[in-house]
Amino acid sequence: MKRLIMSVFFGVSGLFFSTIPLYCQAIGFTLEWQSARIFRNIGIGFGARAMSMGGAFIAIADDITASSYNPAGLAQLIRPEFSFGVNSENQLTKIPGADLSPLFSPDWQSVQTNPSETKLNTFAFDYVGLAMPLRFVNFPMTIGVTYQTKVSNRAKFEYFRSFDFYETYYGSSEPTMTSSALSKLASTGGINIVTLSLAIRPLEFLYIGANTNLWKEVRPSLLTLYVNDNYITGERFSEEVHTQETWRSSGGVSYDLGILIKVKMLSIGFVYKTSFKADTSFGAAASYTVTDFDGTVTNGGNSWSSAGKLNWPLSYGFGISFRPLDALTLSADYNFTQWSKCGVVWNPDAVYAPNGYPIDNPKDTRQIRAGVEYVALLKQIAIPIRIGGFKDKLYGLDVNNEGVPYYAVTFGTGLVSKNVAFDVSAIYYAPSFDISSHWFGGYPQSLVSAKISNWRVLTSISVRLGS
Questions:
Q1: How many CA atoms lie within 13 A of 368 on its CB side?
Q2: Mean pLDDT, residues 140-161
Q3: Which CATH number belongs to the domain containing residue 196 in this structure?
Q4: Interatomic CA distance for residues 37 and 31, integer angstroms
């Protein structure tokens, strides 16, 4: 009986990883953070200065990063501008322990999960761009080109959970057994965009701009999952090592239209970003090695790939900026992204076509952003001080997929001279969400509250050419 129950609990792992759909469930949490990063980044522009003001930049858009917030703002440039930036991210997710005894009774006297942590560390290229002011007849005009890492997948991810089981069979007490799983993910690539921009000022107060965006997604990753089940007394039950190499790719073209109106101290901006269809493919090659309690070693694996059309959502935003003093700027934005229309139509011959790719039942997102910039003027340089924040949701993490609401705080500073601007910003948020307390099939799910602590740091350097 004891061996039978153990086989139900832990021997299921072989089946878990030898079938494609269940294998995808096993790596679900790892893939969900990638989807959450997509949802967090799409619709937000790049650059340290803008992000230190909470990303409220639609109605300001007065440097090269305007191409990602509101391309109309590029027509404000007087001199050619070259800029590039990098960003880093550190995220810690803490999952508390839980008492699962009621779920496993009467087979087990006590089942306890131990507190666990998930760590994510990234350092990636952010963007590089060049903008060139010109004149068309008598109208100021700017053309520009930027290359942006919209979503970086260059990361190291580590996830560990463990369980303690206290057995009770026929009134006897057995030694404690532990079960643990360690996931390690190393990934590269991401979603990159080449943007060609054109902006013109047809009237003294009116700026109009447009972008053509060439999207390319390449996201290879290697996941390794270690599962160990054993008695504290030293008797080995089983050890498992599972690996999965995955790849995703897609590509398409989208367009942006921006308008900026400036009247004295007040600026109003609007931007619309079109939806588009992208050719997409998803595939994986999985393998596993299981060492059973009697020393038997089992090897196996499989692979699959699928292709289809990814529907990418439209988005739009409004912004307002007020400058009561030359050194003080206040701004606020509203952004909407129609994620409910996002999804993949797989080809009829797809080997595996997950319904929830890139995420189950996506919801529209609405972001509110606000920021303040004060510039202290010295003799040869200016020192900006910026603070801001935004309200948003993370999708793909909570069990009900209703989105995890959170408030982010942003701040930053820099050094600005006549020809060079150096900017740095930091973003912090710490939402909580419900997650399943265990991964065992056939048992009711119990929820525990996990908490994310996320820091992002962005750095940008801009050089203004000419005099």
A1: 4
A2: 82
A3: 2.40.160.60
A4: 10
